[in-house]
């Protein structure tokens, strides 16, 4: 098994992140620093990442209703609470599938399955991610229409999105809009709305693929069933074809 795949299966990171760790000289095989990305791991080999031996774990998958003010990370150098801190009884080395900004709430997946992570976050698989945004400004079909064709943010055009205007309050100059996207770029939803003249005041992710937040209060999490994981995988495969 190639070493980046081995690291991903051990729940340390995705394959792409594992390659970054190798390039940084943080991975050893039987005591020797790995320099070739194509290095294979055989039975009995000892792989260490940042000086810690790694082992294959049972694959686990969790759905979290992320509260505001929690960091989508395994650890934080400033000592702030992370999403992993909200699942203290999980023994496996889980990490978030993608990120939600510290002030964004809602549905976040956590796992120790690197291949699953890659499958869920890669835009080619077109997994629906649904957000509910409270906006400063009046949302109309006219000013939201560019989102359906794609808008340029950070020098790159977004994939076409879908929107649904939930509420407009002219007296308070506010709107509530549901937005469905397939990508997961940095601050993407906020920047997309800014591109059409609207500022996000409050943002929550309400759906991810076939999953929603039904039955979960902010800060609560539950383990996904095999059927739910299979449905997500099948959705990604179907969209790829």
How does this model look, in words?
The structure is a single chain. The chain folds into three domains: 3-53, Structural Genomics Hypothetical 15.5 Kd Protein In mrcA-pckA Intergenic Region, Chain A (Roll), CATH 3.10.290.10; 61-122 and 215-240, Pseudouridine synthase I, catalytic domain, N-terminal subdomain (Alpha-Beta Plaits), CATH 3.30.70; 128-208, Alpha-L RNA-binding motif (Alpha-Beta Plaits, 2-Layer Sandwich), CATH 3.30.70. It contains six helices and 15 strands. α1 (3-9) packs across α2 (15-23). Strands 5, 6, 7, 8, 11, 12, 13, 14 and 15 form a nine-stranded mixed sheet that branches. It has a four-stranded antiparallel sheet with strand order 2-1-3-4, with no helix packed on it. A two-stranded antiparallel ribbon has the order 9-10. It is elongated and about 65 Å long. The mean pLDDT is 92. 23% of the residues lie in helices and 28% in strands. With 241 residues, it is an alpha+beta fold.
Which key terms come to mind for this protein?
241 residues; alpha+beta; Structural Genomics Hypothetical 15.5 Kd Protein In mrcA-pckA Intergenic Region, Chain A; Alpha-Beta Plaits; nine-stranded mixed β-sheet; 15 strands; elongated; EC 5.4.99.-; RNA-binding
Produce a short descriptive summary.
The chain is of the alpha+beta class and 241 residues long. The chain has helices at residues 3-9, 15-23, 114-121, 141-149, 188-195, 226-240; strands at residues 27-29, 32-33, 47-49, 52-53, 61-66, 95-96, 105-111, 129-136, 152-153, 156-157, 162-169, 174-181, 199-208, 211-212, 221-223.
């Amino acid at each position: 098994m190639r070493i980046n795949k081995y690291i991903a299966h051990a729940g340390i990171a995705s394959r792409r992140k594992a390659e970054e760790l190798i390039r940084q000289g943080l991975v050893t095989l039987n005591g020797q620093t790995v320099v070739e990305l194509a290095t294979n791991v055989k039975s009995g080999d000892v792989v260490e990442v940042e000086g810690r031996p790694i082992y294959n774990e049972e694959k686990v998958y969790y759905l979290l209703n992320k509260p505001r003010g929690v960091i989508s990370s395994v650890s934080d150098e400033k000592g702030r609470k992370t999403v992993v801190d909200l699942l203290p009884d999980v023994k496996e080395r889980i990490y978030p599938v993608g990120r939600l900004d510290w002030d964004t709430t809602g549905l976040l997946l956590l796992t120790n399955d690197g291949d699953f992570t890659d499958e869920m976050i890669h835009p080619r698989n077109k997994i629906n991610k649904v957000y509910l945004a409270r906006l400063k400004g009046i949302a109309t079909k006219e000013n939201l229409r560019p989102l359906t064709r794609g808008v340029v943010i950070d020098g790159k055009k977004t994939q076409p999105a879908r929107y649904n205007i939930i509420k407009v309050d002219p007296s308070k100059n506010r709107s509530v809009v549901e937005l469905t996207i397939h990508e997961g770029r940095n601050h993407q939803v906020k920047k997309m709305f800014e591109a059409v003249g609207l500022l996000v005041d409050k943002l929550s992710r309400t759906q991810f693929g076939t999953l929603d937040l039904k039955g979960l209060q902010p800060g609560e999490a539950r383990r996904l069933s095999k059927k739910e994981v299979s449905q997500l995988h099948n959705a990604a495969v179907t969209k790829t074809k």
